[in-house]
């Protein structure tokens, strides 16, 4: 579905891998992180590779203003905790998104306020916001389906845990395994939360699921 393409991050896996390989040829994210324990400056390689998408993820859920601070805080938390890394199956990207998601939870009122405002916005307001406004990324990007207000209302109605799972799948293109790694929950819990969230969104949007492509690429 075209809506999925609009919800997803703007740069792909290949671009991200190029950034890592240019600064640390032949090293995986995990290897770079381990190296940063002895050589802290190496952590900058991970910052350069992932800061942009973490910023966009936070901005999509909160606002561009908060994304500046929370994206920076995500990497500060990661840097301080790099010696303890190892609880997410060696997936550095999932670990970073997990940190960002935990920080977003502290601002859940801001997120719900955003969806409430977007749910009230009329077509003229959304058109004025434009596709490049990070504050309205989710709603503006799905304009082709004409379901902006209903989507915002549906997202606001979800339990926070269900919303976290849904948006990690929709915005970060995470698999069940990666969501489980990011949030520190079993894959079965991911599946049940995602199922609940998708049912709620489909009910609000007339059986349209804007977080799922037709190939089921994000499943499993």
Q: What can you see in these coordinates?
A:
The chain has 220 residues and is mainly α. It has a domain of 145 residues: RNA polymerase sigma factor, region 2, helix turn helix motif (Rna Polymerase Sigma Factor, Chain: A, Orthogonal Bundle), CATH 1.10.1740. 69% of the residues lie in helices and 0% in strands. The chain is built from 13 helices and no strands. The N terminus is likely disordered.
Please provide the count of β strands: 0
CATH topology of the domain at 2-146, by name, is Rna Polymerase Sigma Factor, Chain: A
Oligomer, anyone? Answer: single chain
Q: Going by CATH, what is the homologous superfamily of the domain at 2-146? A: RNA polymerase sigma factor, region 2, helix turn helix motif
CATH class descriptor of the domain at 2-146: Mainly Alpha
What value does the average pLDDT take?
78
Structural class assignment: mainly alpha
Shape: globular
- Elements, N to C (H/E): HHHHHHHHHHHHH
- Report the biggest beta sheet as strand number plus sense, adding barrel if it closes: none
Count of individual helical segments = 13
Poorly predicted regions are 1-14, 17-23, 138-146
Short note summarizing the structure:
The protein is 69% helix and 0% strand.
